[in-house]
Amino acid sequence: MASKATRTIQALGTAAEPYIIEQRRYFHRHPELSLQEFATTEAIARELDAMGIPYERPLATGLIATLAGTAPDAYHPDGTPRRRLLIRADIDALAVTERTGEPFASENEGVMHACGHDCHIAMQLGALRILSQMRDELHGEVRAVFQPSEENGGGSALMIDAGACEGVDGAYAAHIWSEVETGTISCEPGPRMANTDWFRLDIRGTSCHGAMPQRGADAIIAAAEIVNNLQTIVSRDLSPYEPAVVTVGELHGGTARNVIAGTAYLTGTVRTYSKAAHEAMPKLIERIAVHTAAALGAEAELTDYTVAHGAVVNDERASARCRQAIVEVLGEEAVGRYRGTLSGEDFSRYLELVPGVLAFVGTRNPALGATFAQHSCFYKVDESVLAKGAMLCAQYAVDFLAEHVK
């Protein structure tokens, strides 16, 4: 039989569903790019004001709210919380032109919430709305971080530098996810999202007339071969049991259609799970690029290799707690299964400092056209899962703060 707290969460979550969907649609209609989330931040602040939840704005965008529990043991005599849980929602959108045809489609041309951050804001606001009405069940404090600039990979570091993790005992986040079936939520322990790195290679050849290729060294040909050969890192340098991706997203070269290009450059991203593969990648990329270019009479240099952030690794205990929260508030049938993804998430930085969990809230529903991948201009979600995500967050918070209560 469900506990009193769980029954309260279920009732409040069901009542809050229209509000949560309304919030999602508002933020979807008004997306903003990383570090430009000014109106988004103002809108979140208005909602928190209406709930009576105080907050701080340490950065130009984003904010940190504090929901204080009123259970008798919620605070120590010195005023510090007995336990403090950080919950996080990212708030930025992508430079994508929306083509969903939704009536609440983006009104900001060329910008779209194509990764579900609008849903994250709405679910976290919904969770706070639920929890703000049951403070007497909170044996500690909830710190709600509305984080800017996740898509650029730097927002979590900014929030941490602003003190988001100070005095925090655990962390929770949820990501709406198009590869998990709607109505189910996955929170398995271990690696869930990948180490994320960026790189740039510069290629130098010798330009010449396009009709006299023998007089030069074609930088574009060398760059193209490098693109192909980089794929052998995954197929030949790493174990078949080692997940990894090397993607070249840009290749630029040449100045005119009748000139053999003297220079070119390419940029890309690397995704790995293990520490060994992560550390090996720069040298592997450089080796292949340098020798491939040399074989074609050109030169290549790895001019930039940036570690954006590490892998998201769910703490075993936090994952077990999250699974139990799913069962409590949504039922055993809501427990999802997902192998994880080589997509990246800067929530990893919080998990490097405190134990925690990132849950994948499934939204795949072919009947609604919710099948497109994250970052697609056609990306849709099944909005019926949003209240469930809010209820899970609330249940996790209640359970986390209640642990070790005498």
Give the count of helical stretches. Answer: 10
Q: Under the CATH scheme, which architecture of the largest domain would be assigned? A: 3-Layer(aba) Sandwich
State the domain count. Answer: 2
CATH-level-4 superfamily name of the largest domain? Zn peptidases
- Identify the strand order in the major beta sheet: 1-2-4-3-5-15-6
Report low-confidence residues grouped into runs of 5 or more. Answer: none
Shape: elongated
GO molecular function, one term: metal ion binding
Cofactor: Mn(2+)
Organism: [Collinsella] massiliensis
Keywords: Hydrolase, Manganese, Metal-binding
Give short descriptive properties of this protein.
single chain, 406 residues, alpha+beta, Aminopeptidase, Alpha-Beta Plaits, 2 domains, seven-stranded mixed beta sheet, four-stranded antiparallel beta sheet, 10 helices, 15 strands, 34% helix, elongated
Account of the protein in words:
The structure is a single chain. The protein is an alpha+beta fold. It folds into two domains: 4-191 and 310-402, Zn peptidases (Aminopeptidase); 195-309, 2-Layer Sandwich (Alpha-Beta Plaits). The protein is built from ten helices and 15 strands. The strands form four sheets. A seven-stranded mixed sheet has the order 1-2-4-3-5-15-6, sandwiched between helices. The protein has a four-stranded antiparallel sheet with strand order 10-12-8-13. Helix 1 runs antiparallel to helix 3 (117-132). The longest helix has 26 residues, at 4-29. The mean pLDDT is 97. Residues 197-289 form the Peptidase M20 dimerisation domain.
